[in-house]
Amino acid sequence: MERVLPNQGNANIEDRTGIQTTTDLNPVNQQKTESKVQLNIQPEMNTESGAVCPLCGDRGIVLNGDTAAPCSCMEKKRIENSFKYARLSRELMNCRFEKFSLEYYRNANTQQDQEDYLNAQKALRAAREFVKNVRTNPHEVGLLFTGSVGSGKTFLAASIANEILENNHKLLFLIVPDLLDELRATFSNKSENTEYDLLDIARTVPILILDDLGAHNYTEWSRNRIYSILNYRMNEQLPTVITTNLDFDEIDHYLGERTCSRLLQMCRIFRLSAPQDIRMQNYLKREGLKKDKK
Ligand SMILES: [Zn+2]
Questions:
Q1: For the chain, does the N or the C end have fewer beta carbons within 10 angstroms?
Q2: Does residue 183 lie in a domain region?
Q3: CA of 96 to the centre of ligand 1 (A)
Q4: How far is the CA of 157 from the centre of ligand 1 (A)?
Q5: Tens of pLDDT along 1-53?
Q6: Does one domain contain both 88 and 185?
Q7: Matching InterPro entries, A to Z (predicted)?
Q8: Residue 168 C-alpha to ligand 1 middle, in angstroms?
Q9: Residues 111-150: pLDDT tens digits?
Q10: What separation in Å is there between the alpha carbon of 36 and the centre of ligand 1?
Q11: What is the span of the domain harbouring residue 57?
């Protein structure tokens, strides 16, 4: 199943995120600060957690002509730090499009397996296009990857996140059960953020990735929180990438009709299906129980 649906919202909605971007930085100033970076790391590793900002060398300030402005990384860090679990895990930080092997989706020459391969190819192409387009279009239509456990959907979503973060764009990667836990934790005194703070960030962050919108035990409260995030993002045309192991009937069942309907408007939908769980395929390869396919 692959459906491509037009995004029907209003084209001229102003970006209300209130987040200042500093993409028009003077390249000369950027070079100046870059030369101060001490760590010998590859440029594409710079924006990973704990690494030095290539724009400001972690000073938090960039010079644009003769005026100093807060670096975009400050806002990025604020977004990341607001959620305890927003950082990508070590495993997910390694996900890249180049490592997304279509061979996992190929099996015997049956019609069905060919379909899996073509669907995976379409999903990969859409993911790359999304990354490319979102650089110039802050209202790019989002993506929804649906498929069973071990079908590669989180890998694709994490690859999108890594590419976008490397370009210093503001993005939040949230695993849905963690998000709901964090929202609940704001009710205890332990959390520094209020529920509204966290919801506001998830609603307004320029690019949001929601991983594992699955068959969890949603209460009316959690259903409403997810709806509130998605509804805001749909109205403001803010791109959202979602992974789920649910099909649309199930999304309707677990999250309700109104959320389901918004997802259709916000996202292009791609199905990923591998003949065998990719983690199992990797396990068999690693343990020498299966030969590498050519
Ligand atoms: Zn910076």
A1: C
A2: yes
A3: 23
A4: 25
A5: 444 344 433 333 333 333 333 333 333 443 333 333 323 233 333 344 456 88
A6: yes
A7: AAA+_ATPase, IstB_ATP-bd, P-loop_NTPase
A8: 9
A9: 666 888 899 999 999 999 999 999 999 999 999 999 988 8
A10: 12
A11: 27-80
